[in-house]
Amino acid sequence: MKQIHNEQEFNTAIQNDKISVILFTTKWCGDCMFIKPFMPSVEAAYDAYDFYEVDRDEMMDLAQELEIMGIPSFVSFKNGKEVSRFVSSLRKTRPEIEAYLDALKDVEE
């Protein structure tokens, strides 16, 4: 998963004709650490998408602009526009993340 550390990197990542899935996380978040071990295999299974990680604490202005308060949260973009989000303060399971990514296939067309 590629790391995003500033607004320029974020803007470059979302200006893509592929779907860019942005994962908002932090180092201290237990629920974020819960998904970390299986995310590489999820990324491999959904290789049609580009995956990026944003540390919400490092980029709080962006998180607030996008109204990301609960983490981990996923926001997906295509051609610079938000197309979907999976945002809540609840722990996310692998099946829930995969269902979210499966639903993005409708956006691709």
From TrEMBL:
Q: Does the keyword Isomerase apply?
A: yes
Q: What InterPro entries does the record tag this protein with?
A: Thioredoxin-like_sf (IPR036249), Thioredoxin_domain (IPR013766), Thioredoxin_H-type-like (IPR050620)
Please provide, alphabetically and separated by semicolons, the GO molecular function terms listed in this UniProt record. isomerase activity
Look up keyword Cell inner membrane and say if it applies: no
Report the CDD domains cross-referenced here: TRX_family (cd02947)
| Protein name stated in the entry | Thiol-disulfide isomerase and thioredoxin
Tell me where on the tree of life, at the top rank, the source sits. Bacteria
| One family name in Pfam for this protein | Thioredoxin
Q: Which stretches make up the Thioredoxin domain? A: 1-106
What UniProt keywords apply to this chain's record, in alphabetical order? Isomerase
